[in-house]
Write a structure and sequence with these properties.
4 copies of one chain form a homotetramer.
Chain A (H helix, E strand, L loop, with lengths): L2 E11 L2 H11 L3 E6 L2 E5 L9 E5 L4 E9 L2 H11 L5 E5 L8 E5 L5 E5 L31 E9 L2 H12 L2 E7 L5 E7 L7 E5 L8 E7 L3 H13 L3 E8 L6 E6 L5 E6 L13 E4 H5 L10 H5 L9
Parallel strand pairs in A: 1-4, 5-8, 9-12, 10-17, 13-16
Antiparallel strand pairs in A: 1-5, 2-3, 3-4, 6-7, 7-8, 9-13, 10-11, 11-12, 14-15, 15-16
Chain lengths: ~325, ~325, ~325, ~325
């Protein structure tokens, strides 16, 4: 129980200006800071200063993901558990918006930052909300996601990854896909009452450390339908959706931001995992072949497109 | 962190048959058991066997509320903490659907049950869902709430109650109303990432132990608008809403079931409390007078109607 | 301007009892009459007695479609225009719910009834609505469509059909698909402010008189998403959707009723054709290949499945 | 049947710049022209060049309302019918966006323009939509109404007004309120399949020619709930709603633009008046006292606030 929640992701983009324009004008995030080659972006109900660090780079993909711990002690406990393991990278002083940070990597090589000290967002006067239980004004610009929800990585060996997250970080598995040969092809884990804070999907290319998508939460399915129109009008590539996942029942819509990274907007309705002893749901290969909840076939690129992009056979 | 979540409520009704018909045919709950003078009811995504025990009685109001602990050890810890205090009532063997139970009461006299062992709902064949991550088929009958969300009690001294829940049960305060004279007039507490699992409102009558409402979660605001039509068509008394609360931002609709108990259906959008160190929001008397989020004045009966009903000056 | 609106369809089903159960318990229509091998069904806001006549038969498909005229004189004018043409079938005394009827067929052989005298629905006491501007109580059972919206026929030669409907019945073309070889592949026509009261799609099988789908209007897109869950839970075959058509922008969901006939639920948002001189929109073959509005590819069966079913090469 | 639909309104505002900013940045209309003291504004799916002419003036209120006829002949017929009556004002050359116009006034003094020739909106390149059956790109800015829907006038003698609109312009009454003393207190009339294109409400002040509100159509009720948040965040005065009218069943939200004129956003679901012989619904004084559909009491200012504003006793 040491991890409180997903904090932020750092995504790389080879077309920085276009990506910034996408995330601010079309996606409706707000710039909460700039430093070096990066801008720090936030949704209107993220309580921390930002939830997405966008960094100019030669390629796309995820540079790191950060989780906030429940307390300073929890941070020390996680660091102690990882100390001396092959996953340890070490302590840093943190970054804009958060303090002292322990860095590690998962068995697939995704870089993970753990931190507790964080900067709560203080809206400038023109962005003050009308309701004081919300950190920032509802933008009314583009699609207006509420908050960061989860992310999805690609990994070569999902079972190793799952064990890592269960053992070292205390995440709980809520659902998974197991192929007929016994290999896990998808895992969904949580540290909160959300049914997942992140998911990993098997990377068929054998290239480790890749990124599948980042997801922001919308307040309703109707907001996702409206987002689809906004994406359509702005020439954003819509990969698949809106539709409802059978796994986790999330209502989803996937697009690619100009830098090539996949971005999802999602709504879970009122679904939460409240049981402290939730028994993971296992989906078989046959069940998975049925496609999404209402019968939409899973689009081929969903299995192949990740960032950075690699050649497929 | 010993309490996992709100488990169920036991409500009393002097018109048992009418109340059962309301909760099953109009509200869309399913009967999951019957014993003595009670029926046990559930929403389609409640993972436990039931979330509402409805009991024939001479009056209305709440007989008890039950919270599930995170583990058997957590249950023992809470019992040990309460043992010997004026709040202790003692152990029981449990009830249909849950095991060994420690019973206590809060400073206002509401009876609280704590338990860990619980029966997971197993749907009979005709109620099996199509998606295996859901315990029961979506009913498609009446208003179809997804799951129990929270409840609201009335209490004479809110500060005493808040301290009780913080100290003995580990709930965290997320929002509150403080009057100009310094008294708390409303408190919202949580043990989960929901922004509240229950709330207490000041009872101006001075009568302790009363009940304000039970709330089921709907997947969307549109489902609440549809519910309003279903209530209208079935002659159910709509007290106020649909509208959006300023406090907690919940989209709400309040009705009275035939027994007189207030019932709410609500949707929180994608709002969650993810911060482990959330700083409680305090609303002043003046802010409260502004009414609900979009300006609807708080209806008078919201301050006066509770169950069991008492004479007002 | 002689046609007022689409009145009803008569659909045939080889599995009568199952189809009746589908349309009443899952789809949420109400039985408003029975005669011979037929039941007469209605949505809650259809002002006429019924909008669907369902008839037991050896096959599936549409037996006839009926349009109401704006006045008795309008009916006489349409009959006079058709008298002596190859399309004339002749006068009948009508059927349950409507009076004197002129019957004709379109160039593809679909049977069309024209009538003016109609029976306004009078709800029995238990189905009286709470609001007097609605003929029947909102059912709160299954998916609850509001009213009949449109239907879609298959035809071998769309241009002939279009000219027939424009010349003899005064329908106006609002949108169409024209293939690279100049043939029309889809036509949408209206007699109202709805953007279409019916559509015809080119039948590649060369078999005339076939039926593509009947459509009921839902109040919102969210109701269509809820309908998808109801269909899923009841084992109804979902062919495609929910998604948004590029043509006419209709939000759609297609299922097959047990008799094999395709049934759509749809929502047009606030879109209406108000211009009396609307200029038809023409979609090219290339534009059509882009799929639906948000990129969903048009499903193959949408081009091949019609009723009665015929063998495809 | 000579009137096709409501074309546009000209509203006056004493705070022109603030009103323009409201209608463009918050309300999401687009400027489609400027001339003299006026800007011409449009919603994204209005097919004509504009639907709102906003004019700087010393007061607020409506300067004129314009209806488009079904044909040039229809315009001539309406002019001929009104020629020589006390309602005639005479012909003009039109205005930006529409040609030759016959001007008259109703018995209460509201100025009415009738025209046929109109300019279809042609979007500049940056506002071209992705779907060719829509005149302009969905803005994704503010609340994004789809199109002008209706307007509401105040009048001293509603029966005289109703008879004028029925006799001279061919509108049909669909619903009305009749007081116990026999006077009409509200009338709703239509020339389309919408259940009303305008309404008149009894003006208790005895001052003729006043304006109650203009209404734009939203695609869904959820869009209206989102609009409420946008209004809240921008300090726009919300008078009442969101809620559902009993009369006409419209889901509504009323605000005041900075110039003091009341503006509504509304959604009718899939409700249409398709019957050519619709029998008007009459609501009694007692029924009216029940308030709106789900029990919200009609707010007092709804009976008193009109523009230009006058002193009330």
């Amino acid at each position: 129980m040491d991890i409180a929640h997903l904090g932020h992701l750092e995504l790389m983009t080879p077309v920085f200006d276009k990506s910034v324009r996408f995330f601010t004008e079309i996606f409706g995030l707000t710039i909460a800071g700039e430093k070096g080659d990066s801008v720090y972006l936030r949704a209107y109900d993220d309580y921390e200063r930002y939830s997405l660090k966008l960094t100019a780079a030669k390629t796309n993909g995820m540079k790191h993901v950060a989780y906030r711990t429940r307390s300073p002690q929890a941070l020390e406990r996680r660091a102690a558990a990882l100390k001396g393991t092959p996953f340890e990278i070490g302590w840093t002083d943190g970054d804009l918006g958060h303090g002292k940070t322990f860095v590690c990597k998962d068995p697939d090589g995704h870089v993970i930052e753990l931190y507790y000290e964080t900067e709560w967002y203080e809206a400038p006067p023109e962005l003050k909300p009308s309701l004081k239980n919300q950190p920032q004004r509802f933008p009314g610009r583009g699609i207006n996601p509420r908050r960061l929800d989860h992310w999805n990585g690609l990994a070569v060996n999902l079972s190793e990854c799952r064990e890592f997250f269960e053992k070292y970080l205390g995440f709980r598995l809520t659902e998974r896909i197991v192929l007929n040969d016994g290999r896990e092809a998808g895992i969904w884990l949580t540290a909160t009452n959300k049914s997942y804070d992140f998911a990993y999907t098997r990377d068929a290319t054998g290239v480790p450390g890749r990124f599948h998508h980042i997801t922001y939460a919308m307040n309703s399915r109707e907001e996702i339908l409206l987002a689809a129109d906004v994406f359509l009008e702005n020439g954003v590539f819509i990969e698949t959706g809106p539709h409802k996942h059978a796994v986790q029942q999330t209502f989803f819509l996937y697009v690619y931001e100009p830098g090539g990274n996949r971005v999802e907007v999602a709504n879970a309705g009122a679904r939460l995992i409240l049981a402290p002893d939730w028994k993971p749901i296992t989906w078989t290969e046959d069940e998975r072949k049925k496609g999404q909840a209402w019968g939409l076939k899973t689009i081929e690129s969903f299995h192949t497109h990740g960032t950075p992009e690699v050649a497929h056979k």
